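Thread title: Can someone regenerate the structure for this chain?

I was given the following input by a collaborator and told the matching structure tokens would be attached. They weren't. Posting the sequence so someone can regenerate them.
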Amino acid sequence: MNALPVGGKVATLIAAMDWRTSPLPSPDAWPQSLRTAVDIVTHSPMPMLLLWGPQLCQVYNDAFAVLVGSNHPVAFGQPVDAIWPEYKPFTDEIYAAVMQGEVRTYTERGFNLPRGEDSAKVWLDLTYSPIRDENDRVAGILVTAIEASERRLVTAEGKRTEQELRESEAHFRMAIELSPAVHWTADASGRTNSESQTDRWRQLTGMDSRQPSDADWAKLVHPDDHQPTLDAWRHAVSTGGPYDAEYRLRMVDGSYHWMHARALPRLDTDGRTRQWFGMTEDVNNRRRVEQALRELNETLESRVIERTQALAEVNLRLQDEMHERERAEEALRHAQKMEALGQLTGGIAHDFNNMLTGIIGSLDLMQRYISAGRSDEIARFTEAAVTSAHRAAALTHRLLAFSRRQSLDRRRLDPNQLVYSLEDLFSRTMGEHLQLHLRLAADVWPVNTDASQLENALLNLVINARDAMPDTGVLTIETANCHLDATPDGATLEPVRPGDYVMIRVSDNGSGMSAPVLAKAFDPFFTTKPIGQGTGLGLSMIYGFAQQSGGQVTLHSRPHEGTCVRLYLPRHLSAHEEPQADTQLPEPPMAQAGESVLVVEDDQAVRMLVLDVLDELGYRAHSAGEASAALALLEAGLQIDLLVTDVGLPGLNGRQLAEIARQQRPGLKVLFMTGYAEKAAERHGFLAEGMDMITKPFSIDVLGSKIREMINLA
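Best answer:
Regenerated them for you:
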């Protein structure tokens, strides 16, 4: 690497300067092109200014420092526009042109330069030339300044000596050498000087050192470009205007390169053309890039169309794949549905057939005994039929619990009290070989849920635990208050709402479940028990019950370590104790004189049963098989004290019938009967004031008591 440039006071300034205040790097990081340019400037006796880099930072010699005046040394190394903002209107156009490779000269331009607290008018001859870096890009501007103040005032005193002119020309030539272009001169008539810049011409074209004369240009310039180029040069010479032309020039290897030639006339004091000064540079790469861009633009539209078509084809294939995947998924879902239905028919149908066998067989024997006059012996058959019927009803409720369609009679209850009331039942269910431990926390919050459904859920968990401990084991039931602000680990339902919950934990130390079994434990109809010993609805029912209650259920199990089920029920925040229903129903009361009931039921057997109950209790009964017939009876003006209607009627359902009936008879009391009704599954929001619901199947005593209760409502 070359040493730092030296020469005069400015060289000392370069070495001592803190370059962190300048956009330029420190001198040891300067590229070789900048070092060479600075060396030329600092050794020149003429005022010379070098503007370098994107911000055109100033580096000048001692002679130019005199012109800078009181702005020196502040101006050194700083952007030119930051020091001389008042000259931007003059210099902006010059800098832009020179950075594009042009040369600009000016004669006797006046400037007000700082001199201490004042300023002085100075007249300068200026030449602005492009300086290129190692990559042949214009990286800076060389400004040569000759003070013309004295010449302007006194012509004789303003002349430079021949030696000074030679030195100036020598330094100017050195500056020109930094440019990769060929610089040439021509006389006033336009004849070129064949001796100018011969070495650079050889570097540019590869030809020998003799630059071609005017007569040789016809052989070198492309035939298509020769005449336009010659016409442009003649026009410039005749008018004294600038010359600017692009043409193709033959290289030594016979190929043609695009050249860009420019020239300006040097005028004497009378305005006549004297030093034509021109430069020619190789712009073949630029033209090649421009041609490539033109071709790119010409083919862009067709390529966009091709790409769009390709994307459309890909999109079509993706849509076909998506449709095929949807068809495959639908087929898989159908197969899974059919498998579930198969499990349903294998377990539920088996259980129902056993129950129906008990009912049908008992009724058949009852008929035979009555025909034989042995009616006093049929009590055991009626008991067997009723027991089988209740088992069928319980199985139906388990199905509805799984599908979250059973009607919940949610009331305030004490979880500990409910568990204590079931302790004997749990112990008998488990058997003597198993131990039952209760760990019920004190002051457990009340919950708002259906007591019978909770009992059924706990009994299912106890039965599952018993079956998992065939020889010996311990079953533990715990209760505790807890606050959930996130879904607990092992949860099977949707994310839980943050709040207070009561946790009922049922755990055993039995055989436990493997990971595949645990993953399917809550699936409908999934069971590991033999056919006929389980329907796979126990945990599914608990799942549906927890969902309807606004709670959560979690399941943890490992083989040979046991199983733990946690049931979370929302805390009941009401401070008032709700009255508990009396489990021992009295005999249904008889009707009072003149009371009338309208029964709407599409099932003939059920309708007949209800009408018989009303007749036995002394009510005047009217019946209809659908809503339209019931509305006709209401419009007839009959006395109706209570409307008893099934929810799932054909056409208008029972709830819609009640709304229309109340428009005709405001305050009419309504008792709904339901076996399965999606919108009636939750009492709250379905029942209005003066309405209640009874779930099928029901006993005669329950129906009679509920009818009396409804009519007695105020």
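The first strand starts at residue 48 and ends at 52.
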